[in-house]
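Following up on my earlier thread - several people asked me to post the actual chain instead of describing it. Fair enough. Here it is, all 147 residues.
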Amino acid sequence: MNFIFTSKLDKSYSEALEKLLFFNPHQKNYIANITHSINLFGQPQIEYNNNKIIIELDGLPDVQTLFALDKENSALIGVMIFSLIDSENLVLLHIGVTKEYSSTGIHSDKFLVPMLIYKLRKIAKMIKGVRTITLMYGHSKLTQFNI
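Reply from S.P.:
Thanks for posting it. Predicted structure:
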């Protein structure tokens, strides 16, 4: 595997995370989904606790984050923000990958987005009672699947 997945990220990654979340060139392809997620759950905010990055949303008190790093150089290449919005449904609120790891990038063959979704499914299976995952990003509609 060419990735390191972690839920903890040092403050030194702040600029890279801002680029992924707020200045991602692929946002224009998902603007309706991003806007819908923000309207429902709030705008992601980058906060810090003991030099570690925490992502918060005003409309949702318990948000989790999984970061993807390139194994070779430890560069931040992906992020997904998710939350358990009820006892049976885990929602992927936001996802972002660098241009190089997108479906049109030079590392598209590494399948980072599907790998992040796979990791989310593994997380969902570990939470008692969770039956579905909802993806706020999709092709013009929400996508929901059973785990």
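The mean pLDDT is 89. That should answer part of your original question.
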